[in-house]
Design brief:
single chain; 12 strands; 9-stranded mixed beta sheet; 3-stranded mixed beta sheet; 335 residues; alpha+beta; 17% strand
Length: 335
């Protein structure tokens, strides 16, 4: 498998810096729905099988949602904005200052995004119009379910997409064509019913919070801490309680509010490298970590444009870049 790019490092450093609970609190949990009995491991076979299907504009959205069949034994998940609720600790706070309030996001062109996210030894970026093609794979410590598919690294979600169009390659050769399938890395965690590992992490975080602020009786020590400390204390406890009682309804992410959903098309800046993974032949791609839903007339917001900038590290970058990309590539996304 091709080596990880600087994109991964940037995402992980941002997540760890602004919300270190993201991967640790939820590693090892996810949708445990048994996958399909049909096992398809070769993305090239899937590509040829689906290329003709994608050529017909009259194909229903329902049939387009399942181009990819799940590998037997893999742990899968399907994000649905109507079923799941986004959560992170900043939602429980009044204010948060994202990194892009101090630094201007890179201009959303291939050259500048490449300089921002890709290691010099990696390939360049290409802009692709992609439709989400099936269930995501939940990867923890290199394993999807009980199957080792990549060398171990922090938990990830890999979502299969089918290429509908090569939108821009900056006049360079693009390794992808219409109908190809690749698995795009997303940076969020799933709060399914907590297992011992994840519950232990939340409990330890709460214990540390109480150690800092409680008196000997186990109550908040107002004699040694300010009102602002009490506010922080209450907000953190509320957040931890929400995680412990999530029952699988929350998606935990501090990065950006745009998550890939089945049946929808997005502009994705993908690493121009189709090297197959040694374990199963799929293409696992570390794309630019913000995806753009240019089918809409306005950039997506989770709570509000102002609040999103406070609770998602990259929300300002997404909103800023979306407006430029909509004008530049919007014609490709008209229904």
């Amino acid at each position: 498998m091709k080596k990880l790019t600087k994109t991964t490092a940037l995402i992980l450093s941002a997540v760890m810096l602004f919300g270190c609970t993201s991967n640790s609190a939820n590693g090892g949990v996810g949708d445990t729905t048994p996958p399909s009995e049909s096992s398809v491991t070769d993305s090239k076979n899937e590509s040829s099988a689906t290329e003709n299907s994608s050529e017909t504009d009259n194909t229903s959205k329902e049939s387009e949602e399942n181009f990819v069949k799940n590998n037997e034994g893999y742990q899968t998940f399907s994000y649905d904005k109507d079923k799941y609720k986004i959560i992170n600790e900043y939602i429980y706070k009044d204010s948060y200052y994202p990194i892009y309030s101090m630094y201007t996001p890179p201009e959303p062109n291939l050259e500048d995004l490449y300089k921002e996210t890709i290691d010099v030894n990696s390939s360049e970026l290409v802009a692709l119009k992609c439709r989400v093609a099936g269930d995501s794979y939940v990867v923890n410590d290199g394993k999807c379910g009980e199957t080792l598919i990549v060398k171990p690294f922090l938990s990830s979600i890999y979502t299969p997409v089918i290429v509908e169009e090569v939108v821009d390659s900056d006049n360079k050769k693009c390794v992808y064509k219409k109908g190809d399938i690749l698995y795009i890395r997303e940076s969020y965690s799933i709060t399914e019913r907590y297992n011992e590992r994840s519950l232990n992490f939340v409990q330890k975080a709460e214990e540390e919070l109480r150690r800092q602020f409680d008196d000997k009786s186990g109550n908040f020590d107002s004699s040694n801490h300010s009102e602002s400390d009490k506010k922080y204390y209450d907000e953190q406890l509320e957040y931890y309680n929400a995680l412990k009682n999530s029952n699988g309804k929350y998606i935990q992410t501090e990065w950006n509010p745009v998550l890939l959903q089945k049946g929808q098309s997005y502009l994705i800046f993908a690493d121009n490298d189709s090297t197959p993974n040694e374990a199963d032949g799929n293409i696992y791609n570390n794309a630019y970590p913000i995806f753009f839903d240019l089918e809409k007339n306005e950039p997506s917001v989770y709570i509000s444009e102002k609040r999103d900038k406070e609770v998602f590290v990259a929300s300002y970058a997404y909103q800023y870049q979306w407006k430029i990309l909509k004008e530049k590539y919007g014609e490709h996304f008209k229904s």
